[in-house]
Amino acid sequence: MILKFLASLKLTLVILAALGVAVLTAYLSETPTTWALAGPLAAFAVNLAAAVVTNPVFRHQTALLVFHLALIAIILLITVGRLTYLKGQLELAEGEVFDGQLTQEERGPWHLRQLDALHFSNEGFSIDYAKGVRRGVTRNQISWTAPGGEIQRVVIGDQTPFILSGYRFYTSHNKGFAPTFIWYPRSGSSPVLGTVHLPAYPLHEHKQAIEWTPPGGKIPLWVMLQFDELILDPAKPSEFRLPTKYQIVVRVGDERRELKQGEAMRLTEGVLVYNGLRSWMGYTVFYDFTLPWLLAACTLAVLSLAWHFCCKFLNKPWDKPT
Q1: What is the DSSP track for 60-122?
Q2: 319 located within any domain
Q3: Residue with more model confidence, 36 or 151
Q4: Domain total of the chain
Q5: Within this chain, do residues 36 and 92 fall inside the same structural domain, yes or no?
Q6: I need a labelling partner for 15 at 20 to 30 A (CA). Which of 145, 184, 219, 306 fits?
Q7: Can you name the residues that pair with 179 across neighbouring β-strands?
Q8: Residue 157 domain boundaries
Q9: Are residues 127 and 244 in the same domain?
Q10: Which of 175, 161, 311, 147 is nearest to 240 (CA)?
Q11: If you average pLDDT over residues 98-117, what whole number do you get?
């Protein structure tokens, strides 16, 4: 009796309606809605499994049975994927090492976060732009240490990921300039290298300034990169590069300084030394261990459905006498 209730088409309609509401809620909501989607999906899998058990037609049609089992697997995998996924964003300056920290992060409640154990370094990138400042392929070289201790290098891009422990790292359209400073705290502790990620370029071409607090400091500084040369020429093909002639402006309170490489600025909390200009790259990271299993389940569903219809048509004559 319970199985017949779970397999009923009326329950199927209720579940599909609930799933539609959940999808709409997930689309409109700014907060995570994992459970809102996982609940109806799990209920749909139970409904479909009960239908397979109670309907005798599946015991006589193997292809149809395999298709529905694959469909149940797909639904369950999507459910588990929503509960264990992670997606986020991060930024790394040239030469900077990823330490597991993300600037934005969204994950399922069952995700076992392992990012803190992953490390790789951004070794720089190149991007060609077509006429009209149309961005081409991003080529970003990264390096990491293999389990055996060897240094490995690979080139990634927007569509070519770096995969480490199931996490997929892609480059994004966000990138820009990064002035670096050596900060000598007045407390006498060890000097620290600080990197300022200025707003993305060329998206914020005329807003290359940001507020930044030195590592361990409390007083924010205003840092600006000032240059007049044209980096990306809309009239011809060009390439992303650092400006050759520029000024680094640092302002705190009423004090304003223009720093060249190696010059220092004495502040209340310590001494700031300009160390040079680098680039930074923005990355997207995605994790979903169910993807290869989903591909296998979808392939099985397509093949079994093709098998079912092939058998169905072969059992009937194609040509009927007139």
Answers
A1: H-HHHHHHHHHHHHHHHHHHHHHHH-EEEEEEEETT-B--S--SEEEE-TT----GGG---EE
A2: no
A3: 151
A4: 2
A5: no
A6: 306
A7: 277
A8: 87-286
A9: yes
A10: 175
A11: 92
